[in-house]
Amino acid sequence: MNWITNYVRPKIRALVAPREDIPDNLWDKCTSCGHMIFHRELEELLRVCPNCGHHMRIGPERRMEVLFDDGAYEKIELPQALADPLKFRDRERYSERLKKARTKTGQQDAIRVGHGHIGSQPAVVAAFDFSFMGGSMGLAVGEGLVTAAREAARRRAALIAVPASGGARMQEGILSLMQMPRSVIAVQMVRDEGLPYIVLLTDPTTGGVSASFAMLGDVQIAEPGAVIGFAGARVIEETIRETLPPGFQRAEYLLEHGMIDMVVPRSELRETMGRLLGHLMNSPAVRGTAAQPVAAATPAEPSKVDIAAEESDQSEAATAGNKEAGKKDKEAERASDG
Ligand SMILES: [Zn+2]
């Protein structure tokens, strides 16, 4: 933390990084229906097709702008992880692939962490960059998740993970697989502090990422149409020798089958997330721990049941239990929804 890292480095990066300023008069094509859209209009629509509603992928910086109040956040610097620990080589050296990805994105690895407010509640967001080697999770991404969890605990903020990943980074072998338990421990650190942990599943969330921290949220939200699963649909079809149902591994299918809590359009994410955090951050579990250091026997974290009950308009998965607290918030919610 000095003027070299804070001032000089970003300046140099800005000079070296690939330029993204595309002229405003360009047209973009929807990757789903082929509809032509004015580039500027598409950006204003948060890269959601006005014709078919397809949610195109967005990078972590844009993601944070979409989520945080007023699009404002503070970037959290991530510690440097060991690069190419296995000196791995397939058709190409891993070190070369890394170098290319870094040149292409102007970033060190596939994750970015920021701190700000969502619905006036403090939050740390850890967002994946799918354009960086398919958002694959290696040592650096694991490090990013642990840093995000620590920062959330230190700042008494909620942790929000936004995966967009093909899974573990195979070039780091078992070390990348170790990021699965490591990220789960990171989530547990946030839980131990009684702070909420929300996952926003985006397209795609697969492999080792979906098999670890990405499915452990107190609330599981997904963007419409996002592919979420472990193995790819083709691999499953070939293995079980059966045709998979339509919409398999899509967000809506998972919602219907009780795997996630909500499917929320991008334009409503900030508001929905803010409302959830409003409930969760003001729950007794969080309030209780804010005043005093956390003892081993902290009351349970804000329960998933509360939220499910509040959001039961969308999800019929709501179950019994803790209705008392739910009822009060529900009334408040109804009032605010008008
Ligand atoms: Zn479209």
TrEMBL record:
InterPro entries given in the database record: AcCoA_carboxyl_beta (IPR034733), Acetyl_CoA_COase_Trfase_b_su (IPR000438), ClpP/crotonase-like_dom_sf (IPR029045), COA_CT_N (IPR011762), Znf-ACC (IPR041010)
GO molecular function ontology, one term from the record: acetyl-CoA carboxylase activity
Regions of compositional bias (Basic and acidic residues) in chain numbering: 324-338
Enzyme class: transferase
Purpose: Component of the acetyl coenzyme A carboxylase (ACC) complex. Biotin carboxylase (BC) catalyzes the carboxylation of biotin on its carrier protein (BCCP) and then the CO(2) group is transferred by the transcarboxylase to acetyl-CoA to form malonyl-CoA.
Subunit structure: Acetyl-CoA carboxylase is a heterohexamer composed of biotin carboxyl carrier protein (AccB), biotin carboxylase (AccC) and two subunits each of ACCase subunit alpha (AccA) and ACCase subunit beta (AccD).
Protein name per UniProt: Acetyl-coenzyme A carboxylase carboxyl transferase subunit beta
Organism, as annotated: Aquibaculum arenosum
